[in-house]
Amino acid sequence: MTGRDLVPIAIFAAVAALLPLFVTAGTWLNFAVFTLIICLAAQGWNILGGYGGQYSFGHAAFFGTAAYATAILQVRFGVSPYLGFGIGIAAAAAVGWVIGALSFRSGLRGSYFALVTLAFAEVFRVLANATEITGGAAGILIKLDVRPENFQFESRATFYWVALALVVVALVVTRALERSRLGAQLVAVRENENAARALGVDALSVKLSAIALSAAITGASGALYAQYFLYLDSTIAYGTWISVEALLAPIIGGAGTVFGPVFGGIVLHSLSEFTKTLVGRIPGLDLVIFGVLLILVVRFPPRDLPSLIRHWRGRR
Amino acid sequence: MPSYPPEIVAEAVLNGLLTGAVYGLVALGLTLVYGVLHIINFAHGALLTMAMYAAFVAWQVFGLDPYVAILPLVPLFFVLGYAVQRLVIMPASRGEDSNILLVTLGLSIVIENVMLAIFRSDTLSVQVPYAMEVVELGPMLLGFPRVVGFGVAFLVALVLFVLLTMTDTGRAIRAVAKERTGAALVGIDVKHVYAVTFGIGTACLAVAACLLLPFFYVNPRVGNAFVLVAFTIVVLGGMGSVPGALLGGLFIGVVESLSGLYLGDSLGQIGIFIIFILVLLFRPTGLFGAKA
Question: Which of A120, A195, A219, B84 is the most exposed place for a label (fewest CB within 10 A)?
């Protein structure tokens, strides 16, 4: 990785960091923080799905594990939220590694991998709903005590910058991966696993590294979610909604590209806010639009929003 | 773990078998589509939700008993499935596994949320006079709607069997499933057969929806509860195997009923998911022999 690789990321970071200086309304900052949390989860998915070609339908397993770990360590054991944050990310990575080891060793790929990840996330959801330490069906509440050492901030802008910093770190990590040996091997496995193995790539260990890294980044998103909203239950933490969000943004923004997930996440959520102001709050309408966009994007190769737009402009 | 007298356990097993037959019917559509088109239809659960709403509307607006509603809904959903395959899935998939996965996921998101926008998230159910009636079998009481569901599910399987083995359409479907290129060479319109198969799979869902409604509820997410169950059954029975889907359905129905009895409602669902994961990991070809 050279300095030039980082220029676009630096420009993005600088522009995005200025936002709270112009936008001060709480609801808008709220929207921006939420969008960044989704972007972060999507960046995690992009490592495994975009670069590795292994489509997970169960990234909620990682999001929820880190979210619950952070919350439970604080609430039940009085651990510092910053330490909890780190442990949460490590726990997510470990869960990712285990799920990966089980499913990749059994040779699951394509739809089967998608299904098994979905089932793992559901198992976690049912368990979280039925055990006591997670607060069961009532959920778990992190006590509101606004102090920086509690990872709780007076202004939403501070939280925005924290979230942005994490997104930028994930961008740098993704760029570094792209330029690394592991990244090249991962793309080789995506394009043709058998050929990659024939050339001496240890496909299993490459995929395991990818799923652990992927889970760690999505885990960071989950821990951040817990810290920002201060409440979790099993359908938030392990629900299919976050698995779907984590996958939609990169697919629509451009899977296997550094900025794809962030671009997709911002487009999707701006679109959803825009329709809300246009036609009012109809439940589910934003997701209808997301689903239609997903179908359209897949319909016209090479399968992301920029090329879909190019396709339409080319026809005119 | 609590212990129960044998009558209670036997009753749970029987009720599980009855519900399992309807699960089997849901899985039948999924496995048929897999066996012929070699695609995993992720929208299967959402299409079931849609069929259940259709049956609900038929009851509420037109006063049709859910069992009577089977008659108009089956052709309706056949046409719907045909159109979805022909107009949405086929053009978008271009033969790629991951595209089909994403398109059918997109479809399920759209269907589920259109239902949410129209019907909101309320849980609805129909009131039919026979909902609470029971059939006595020795000391055991079996819910009447479940007994009907069991019978009709097997009837549908029989009809499907006859259709697949004794008609020209069925022969064409089986030819395409076995050897697509060869089928195309002898003049079978493969795209048409694909769409017909998808239509039949969706029509199975219409029947299942009408059978479920008298003893179940409907909300926009109800299909999600079935989709993993159906996938479990299909994987268990061997992808693409029709008898496997029915046997798998019965088995999963019993597992669900027993784990609900012993583990309670909230933890009870876990049995199915764990079976699903274990089968995928260790026996992806299914328990009842492999066709896939």
Answer: A195
Chain B contact for A280 (CB, 8 A cutoff): no
DSSP-assigned states of every residue in A238-266:
S-HHHHHHHHHHHHHH-TTSSSHHHHHHH
* Residue keyed to tokens 């709607």: B145
Mutating which of A117, A268, A288 best tests the B interface, going by the most B Cβ atoms within 10 A?
A288
Query: CB–CB of A106 and B282 under 8 A?
Result: yes
Tell me the pTM: 0.91
Beta-carbon neighbour count of residue A78 at 10 Å? 8
Nearest to B252 by CA among B216, B288, B285, B206: B288
Burial B162-191 (b: 16+ CB within 10 A, else e): eebeeeeebebbbbbbeebeebeeeebebe
ipTM field: 0.89
- Report the candidate in A248, A238, A240, A244 with the shortest Cα–Cα distance to residue A271: A248
Does A123 contact B274 at a Cβ distance shorter than 8 Å? yes
Averaged pLDDT in 10-residue chunks for chain B of 292 residues: 82 90 92 87 94 95 93 97 94 82 93 93 87 82 90 93 91 90 90 95 96 92 86 84 88 90 81 87 62 40
Enter the tokens of residue B291. Answer: 């066709």
